[in-house]
Each structure stands twice: as structure tokens, then as C-alpha cells.
Amino acid sequence: MYTIGQVSEMFDLPISTLRYYDKEGFFPHLVRKGNIRYFSNRQLPTT
Fold first, then answer.
1. Three-state SS across 1-47?
2. How much is the pLDDT for 24?
3. How far is residue 46's CA from residue 23's CA, in Å, rounded to a whole number?
4. In angstroms, how far is CA 42 from the centroid of its own chain?
5. Which of 25, 22, 26 has the alpha carbon at shortest distance from 3?
6. N or C terminus of the chain with fewer C-beta within 10 Å?
7. Which pLDDT score, from 0 to 100, does residue 4 have?
8. Of 27, 6, 25, nearest to 15 (Cα)?
């Protein structure tokens, strides 16, 4: 599991962009614990 900050660094994307995508429904299976979003390998692209 990765926090939004970790994913932001991994893909050189602003956190605000990831939050926007989440709000638009691009991550339907995103895990939330409190106010923290956790991304699994399922949400991340594979190479």
C-alpha cells in the first residue's frame, strides 16, 4: 500500500492531480483510513 504522497513522488505528479482523479472516480477501489488514501498495486500501472 502506498500513500498519495508516495504515488505522487513515484510518478512525478502533483498530489492535487491524484486527488482530482480520485474525486472523478478513476480509483473506485481506493482504500481510505480516516483522511488518508492508500493506493495498492491494483491502482498503479504495470510496466
1. CEEHHHHHHHHCCCHHHHHHHHHCCCCCCCEEECCEEEECCCCCCCC
2. 96
3. 22
4. 10
5. 22
6. C
7. 92
8. 6
* 32: its cell numbers: 481510505
At 28, list the grid cell.
Answer: 473506485
For residue 1, the one-letter residue type is M
The residue to which cell 504495470 is assigned: 46
Phi, psi of 44 (to 5 degrees): -95, 145
Three cell numbers written together for 4: 498519495
